[in-house]
Amino acid sequence: MSKFNTYMAGIDADFYIDLCHRKGELRQYKKNEYIQKEGDIFPFCGLLESGIVKYTCRNVTEGKDYNIGFSFPGEFVADYPFCLYGMKAEISIQAVTDCKILFCHSDVLNHEYDDTANGQRMARTAAEQLFNQIYLRYINLYRYTPEERYIQLIERYPDIIQLIPLKEIASYLKITPIHLSRIRRKQTLGMKK
Fold first, then answer.
1. pLDDT at 116
2. pLDDT tens digits along 42-101
3. Which fold has domain 6-143?
4. Is the separation of the CB atoms in 115 and 48 below 8 Å?
5. What is the pTM of this model?
6. Is residue 88 classed as helix, strand or coil in its secondary structure?
7. Domain limits of the chain?
8. Is the C or the N end of the chain the one with fewer CB within 10 Å?
9. Distance between CA 147 and CA 14 in Å, rounded?
10. Alpha helix locations (H) across the chain?
11. Is there a contact between 56 and 66 (Cβ–Cβ < 8 Å)?
12. Rounded percentage of the chain residues whose pLDDT exceeds 70
């Protein structure tokens, strides 16, 4: 699967990968196990070695969690930037499958950011790239219909249907599983014609 998180193309991933390999600690999580819960202080950034994780936020009024993102092998796992500053997490991070994550304490990352001009550039670039990814996702919620967002997702990541349960994809698209089923049925019928 190509990189799911578009910010990865705009950062020097090798800088972070090297840091995780040099200073990180390997942790394993079972399917559905929480890595971090909303409200926790979890001062770690990690490199996902294997498995899939999801990021969720809770709508208190509805009493419902919504998927706001995923990370796949070779991508990073963090509630960035909250993890850097010892702040309470705004989101939960949960293993969708069994996972291995190489976690690096945020003190190590902050030290790298603070000590060199290169580190300061890395911090700025990471913040800019994450903002760009989130900003475009926000705009696309208004710019495209749910069906168009689904089609774009499948065109960019055709394997996602085999990797992520449909209810999780529906939540990510901010639609109900029933709505996603209708979209998929319509797409299937359209392909048969």
1. 81
2. 999 999 999 999 999 999 999 999 999 999 999 999 998 899 999 999 999 999 999 999
3. Jelly Rolls (2.60.120)
4. no
5. 0.89
6. coil
7. 6-143, 145-193
8. C
9. 36
10. 13-23, 106-115, 117-143, 146-156, 160-163, 166-173, 177-192
11. yes
12. 97
